[in-house]
Amino acid sequence: MIAVAAMAEMMSVEDYREFLLNQVAPTETINLPIAQAHGLVSAELVEASCPLPPFDSSAMDGFAVTAQDTAFANATMPVRLTVIDDIPAGGYGRERVTPGTCARIMTGAPIPQGADAVVRVEDTDVPAGATPLRKEISVYAPVSSGKNIRAMGEAANIGEPVIAPGSFFDARAVAAAASVNTSHVRVYRKPKVTVVATGSELVDPGTSLVDGQIPDSNSLLLAGLLREWGADVECVRRIRDSVEDLRAVLEEASLSCDLIVTSGGVSAGAFDIVKDYGETRGFSFPKVAMQPGKPQACGKVGNALVIGLPGNPVSVWVSALLFVRPALQSMAGMRPEAPRIFDGVAGTGWKSPTGRRQYVPSTLKVERSGNRPVVMPVHRLGSGSHVINAVQLADSLCVVPAEVECVERGDRVQFLQV
Ligand SMILES: Nc1nc2c(c(=O)[nH]1)N[C@H]1C(S)=C(S)[C@@H](COP(=O)(O)OP(=O)(O)OC[C@H]3O[C@@H](n4cnc5c(N)ncnc54)[C@H](O)[C@@H]3O)O[C@H]1N2
Ligand code: MOO
Questions:
Q1: Which ligand has the minimum distance to the alpha carbon of residue 353?
Q2: ipTM for the predicted complex
Q3: Ligand 2, atom 4: nearest CA belongs to which residue?
Q4: Residue 388 is part of a domain; what is its CATH number?
Q5: Residue 4's pLDDT is what?
Q6: Which residues does a 6 A CB cutoff place in the pocket of ligand 1?
Q7: For ligand 2, is residue 191 a contact (CB within 6 Å)?
Q8: Is residue 369 located within the same domain as residue 409?
Q9: What CA–CA distance (Å, rounded) separates 320 from 277?
Q10: Annotated pathway, please (predicted)?
């Protein structure tokens, strides 16, 4: 546990992340039909309720045979077999296949008794497609025992673990659970989040700007990111720099939300309302050794965790990636993953502030396979915390250590993918 007392000095990114995560509890769990689990996190181990496939089934459209019958089949000396049954997917064989006989069978249909292989329709004299059932067919190619048969349980046996607790139900995980006949799963409720953009200068995008007004981009950025990361964004608010307005919004949001993310008002200004309000509520205001994103805030209002991000829009993006996302993941029942760092080569040179780790929105270019990717800032202003216009071009953040003052073209650098 990182002590709040340690916050007088600049804190490392890792320590602040841990500090935040220590204040996060997962939401309660609920039991939902599998079709409603998409986008949620499993609170339990899901085991196969049925084998996959649930029965021995055909992997091809063709004819279920006894392999032995086909041993000497070829194009000039086809083997003639009597068709005794017709088995579509969703049907089953009523007759036993015996030597000299076969059953027409479709992909996914159960293998009838007596058959131990399937001959593809292409290896017979029957045209592919919707043809009337023949009384007899010619087989042009041999099949070995088991050919074109998917054995019951060969993909997963009954009771086999399929979804680990803490796994995110993306579309693939939902399909995996459904395929082994899961009806319901216990999942964590989606975290409910409110976004609050603070600043008297903020107006709707598209407004004719007067008297120092600027378009509010942070509320859209945060609401969008939070949705992309699986939150239930209940409410998006924009308020002027009034502690009273902030108090009212936070108190209302705290009644229904697990997390409130604010932007702006956390530094040293005369109207920094998150600071002013938070100080009366025991919030922490760490200075994190990063650029952008140095001034941060966090605290509790009721049961809601409040993460206060600085107002500069690129600071919002970077600190949302580094702090809000893991907090949300943890709240949603996942174990948050630390960002993976890769090696690259600087495609140009730039300056970096000493004492703070720099995160530069960048793009990657792989010039030759096997070579390190070339990392190029997406804007000549690099990590400028107001350059939100170029962030949409970034596929990575170049991470420059705190002690480095200057990156030269060709230097080995590190990056994380976004
Ligand atoms: N004397 C000092 N001044 C500042 C310091 C400091 O240490 N001492 N830190 C600087 C750093 S670093 C940052 S980051 C900012 C953070 O300031 P605040 O969190 O108080 O943010 P604001 O002042 O409210 O806004 C900063 C900037 O961002 C624009 N902004 C705010 N909200 C939005 C929005 N919703 N959409 C678009 N743009 C927004 C705002 O207009 C300001 O330009 O403080 C430095 N100052
Ligand atoms: O650290 Mo601030 O976030 O430079 O812009």
A1: 2
A2: 0.97
A3: 292
A4: 2.40.340.10
A5: 45
A6: 197, 199, 201-202, 214, 216-219, 263-269, 272, 292, 294-295, 310-313, 315, 385
A7: no
A8: yes
A9: 21
A10: Cofactor biosynthesis; molybdopterin biosynthesis
